[in-house]
Amino acid sequence: MKNSKLTALLLTAALAATSVLSGCGGSTTTNTGSDSNAGTTAANNTPAATTAANNGGSNDTAAPAETTAAPAAELTYADGTVLRMACGYNSDKTGMSFTADLAGEGITLADGKTYNSGDLKPTWQAVQELLKIKIEDKYQGNSATDEYQYWDAQLDQVDMLSGTATLLSENGQKGKLVNLAEHLNEMPNFKAYLEENPIVRLSITGAAAGPNSGAIYFSPYFDGVNDIERMPLMRTDWVEKLLNGSGEFTADKSNNTAAPVYTPYMPTSGKVDVDVVKKDGSAVETISKDYGAYGNIVDKMNAAGSIDGVTAVNMLREYIDKTYNGYYGENRADLFIGQNAAWDVDELVALLRCVVANPQTLNGTDSVQGLHTREDSNNQRRVDMFRFAGTLFGIRGMESRLDYLYVGTDGELHDSREDVATYEALSKMHDMVTEGLISSAFVNEEDVNTEKYLSDDSGFMHYDYNQTQTAYNATALDNASGEKYMAVMVPVARWNDGSEKYMRFTESWRSVKTDGWGISAAGVAGNTDKLNACLKLIDYAYSPEGQVMMSYGPDAFVKHDGDKVVTFTFNGKEWPVISDASYADLWKLQNGNYTNYARYYIGSTLSFVKSQAFEYQCTHEVGKEGAGYISKAIALGTIKHPELALAENSWYTSVPTVLPQEVAETNAINELTNLSASGNFGSGKKQVNLFVDIIAKGFTGETGADAATTADTVSKSVADGGWGCSTYLSRRNEAWHRLITFYNSING
What we know:
Blueprint: E1 2-4, E2 81-86, H1 100-103, E3 107-108, E4 114-115, H2 122-131, E5 133-137, H3 144-151, E6 160-164, H4 165-173, H5 188-196, H6 200-204, E7 219-220, E8 222-223, E9 231-235, H7 236-243, E10 271-277, E11 284-290, H8 297-304, H9 309-323, H10 334-337, H11 345-356, H12 359-362, E12 369-371, H13 379-382, H14 384-393, E13 405-407, E14 413-415, H15 420-434, H16 440-444, H17 450-455, E15 459-464, H18 466-470, H19 472-475, E16 485-487, E17 492-496, E18 500-505, E19 515-519, H20 521-524, H21 528-541, H22 544-552, E20 560-561, E21 564-570, E22 573-576, H23 580-590, H24 594-602, E23 609-610, H25 612-617, H26 621-635, E24 639-640, H27 663-670, H28 690-697, H29 707-715, H30 725-746
Parallel strand pairs: 2-5, 2-6, 8-23, 12-15, 18-24
Antiparallel strand pairs: 1-21, 3-4, 6-19, 7-19, 9-15, 9-16, 10-11, 13-14, 17-18, 20-21, 21-22
Helix pairs in contact: 5-21, 9-11, 14-15, 15-28, 15-29, 23-24, 27-30
C-alpha cells in the first residue's frame, strides 16, 4: 500500500482506452504493484489496497486530472448564498438529505457523526462547508422525469434541479435552463474535462445550430465510463452440478420438460467458428460449433418432445461433447461459465430446460424458476428482460443511451421499434415463457426479487449489474458449501455490422447517463450570487478533489495512515482506499450493496463523475471473478461493443444520450404519445412497456398478431393509423445530422 496526500493522488482525467467491469454494472480491474494485498470480501473487514489483476485495463473514467488550463474568470458570490436544490436520484432515499426511515432516531456513520431526519448527508454537508453555501433541499423524491415535471411550472422556486438529459436539453432550448457553455471560461475543471474527453460533447450538446449552437443545459453524470454495464448472472454451481463429471447424469427424481415451443435460432447444420479466450486467459483461440456431429440441441430436444430432466441433461452433455469435439472435457459447464465460454441462446434454452426439470437435484424441491429479473413486479427492472433479449438474439437498440436508437452502417439513426427482427426476438422470448423457462412471477408481475430467489434457492439467472447482485453471495448464499452466483460470458449471437457474422457484442456500454442536473434560469434570474454558486458547485464536482468527494464522500470516509490517505492502484492511477469503518457500514447497512450505501447514507454518486474505484473495493470476490473473465474477453477483443467515438464503421458508434432537437422537432416528437415513456414504452416502476408485454403475454392483437404487423403498426404515421415511429425517426435524424456537423466543426 502506498501513502500520499489526497490532493496529490489524482493524476489524469482522460478516459482509459480499454474496458473492464466491476460494479453496479461496471469496471473491475486494475494494475497492481507487488506490495498489494488480496481483494475484499464480506468476511474481510478491511478493504484491500489492491484489485484483482487483469490484463484488460479499464474504461472507467481515470483518476481526476490536476488541470493546467489558462487562468479562468473567478466565480465570486456572498458567503452563505442559499441554493434551493431539487436534486437527487430517483427516490426520497437517494436525495441529499436523510429521510426518517433511514435516520430513525439518529444514525451514527463512519465519520463518527450522528445524523437525524432532515439533515444533509455527509457529502452535502462537506460541500456546503467547503463552498461556503447554504443548501436548501427541495427534492421531492421523484424519478428524474417526475422531479423535473413537478418543478417545470414553478422554476422560480428552485436554483438547481434533477431531470432526464432529454428533458433538460429540451427545456434548455426553451430558455428555462442556464446554458453552461456560456460560462465555461469560469469553470476551468469542467472545461478541462470536456476538452480531454471531446466525445462527451456528442451526448450533452443541446443545440447544434443557430445562436445557441454548442449549448450545454445540464451537467453530465458518469457512473463509470466506457465499460460494460449489465451482464448475465447464473447459479454457476448448478451448471456444474448438472453438466460436469464423467459418465451419465443420474438423479432419483426429476420433472418433465414442457412440450417444446421454442425453435432453433442458431444453425441446425454446418459449422460456426467462435473466438474464445483460452481457459488460462493467455490468448485468443478459435473453436467450432460442429452441428454435423450431433445437430442443434434445441432441434434434437424438440424432436424428443416432453422428456424427463435426467434425459434432458444427458442430451445436453452429449451435445457439448460432440459439438465441441471434446474441447470442454468433463468440465462441460465451462461452455457457459468459464473464461473460454462460447454459449448461445439455443444452448441456454437447453440449459434452462434442464434446470427447470431438475429442481430435486438443485434445491431439493419440486419447483425452480429459470430466468427472472431483479424485481419481477417492477417495470424498471422488468425491462431488463428485453435488454437481455437484444444480447441473445443480436438486436440493436434494446440498450440504447437514447430511447431505442442505434446507428446503422449507413451512418443514419435507426429505431429497433421499427424492426421486424425485434419483435421476432421478443416472440421467441415468449416461447420461453410458454415452456416455463422464464419465472412465473415475471409473467404475473408478482413481488419476487433476486434476494428471495437466491435465499430460497428458487431462481437460476438474470441480467443485471455485477456488484449489487453478486453481493448476495455473502448474504443469501453459502459460498463455503459451493453455492455461487456469478457473472458469465456475453453470449454468441448473429449480428450484422455490415456483414452477417456470429460474434459476441454488448450494447450495454457506459457513457453519459440519462439523468443530470441543470440550473434554473428563473431561479437564478437577477441574482449573480446564486448563478455563480451553482456554477462553482458544478465546476468543483469535476475537479480532482470533487471527483473523490462525489465518489467516496468526505475525507473521513477514506482510509488514513496518520495524516496521509492510503491509496491503491486502480486503472493505473492512485485512488483512496475506503476506511475500515465505512466498509463495515457498507455491510451493516446495505449488505454490501455499494450503490445503495453511497446514495442512501453518504450522499455520493448522485450525479457528476463517479469513479469505479470505490465500487470495486466493495465487490464480492465472486463478483470479481466473473467480471474478470468478461474483462479479459473485452481486452482481447472477443466481446465487441459500441465506441464512444464516431467509429470508422458507424454501426459501432454509440448513440448520444441527448440530441440537439429544435423546439418544433421536440413538439412533433412529444405528440407521438404511444412511443413515449408515459405511453407504451416506459421504463419507470409503474409504467407500461410493449416489449415487456410481448415477452410476458405474446402478441395480443393490440398492435398486431405477429412480428411483421406489429412493426408496421408502430412504424406507420399516426395519420395512417400507426404510432408514428417513422415520423419520430425523421425528427431524430435531423438533429443527428446537425450534431455531426457541429462536432466535426469543433474537432477539425
